[in-house]
Amino acid sequence: MVRSCYHRVILCMATSRTEGFGLTPLEAMACGRAVLVSGAGVWPLVVDAEVGAEFETGSALSLAASLRQLSPSPVQFWQMGQRGRHRVIEFHSLQREADRTNTLYGWMMA
Question: pLDDT digits over 29-74, tens only?
């Protein structure tokens, strides 16, 4: 169901003022969607101009400016989404996250 929601949009906006490691941008990227994120949490470390854009947390002016700046053709949004999907598969797959977690726990228990 969530996946079908992402497939209905060309841009996913994550506008949270506070965030740890929210999954919304990663889920959207995994579905091949461009993302626009606030500067909250780790999103600025995950999202760049290759896959979307970032705006200043809590600033409606910055959000509007980022939207105007993005405004590419649907083809460009699709290309951002495809690059985002490849990034998620390469760096944030469930298997990779599980392996990293297991490595960390193994290190802590040694």
Answer: 999 999 999 998 888 889 999 999 999 999 999 999 999 888 777 8
DSSP-assigned beta bridge partners for residue 12 = 35
6 compared with 47, residue with greater pLDDT: 47
Structural domain count, the chain: 1
Which range marks the domain in which residue 7 is found? Answer: 2-109
Q: What's residue 102's pLDDT?
A: 87
What phi and psi, each to the nearest 5 degrees, are found at residue 32?
Answer: 80, 30
**Cα first-last separation, the chain:** 41
User: Which of 38, 42, 28 lies closest to 82 in space, CA to CA?
Assistant: 28
50/104 Cα distance (integer angstroms): 30
CATH code of the domain containing 49? 3.40.50.2000
Entry field: residues in the chain:
110
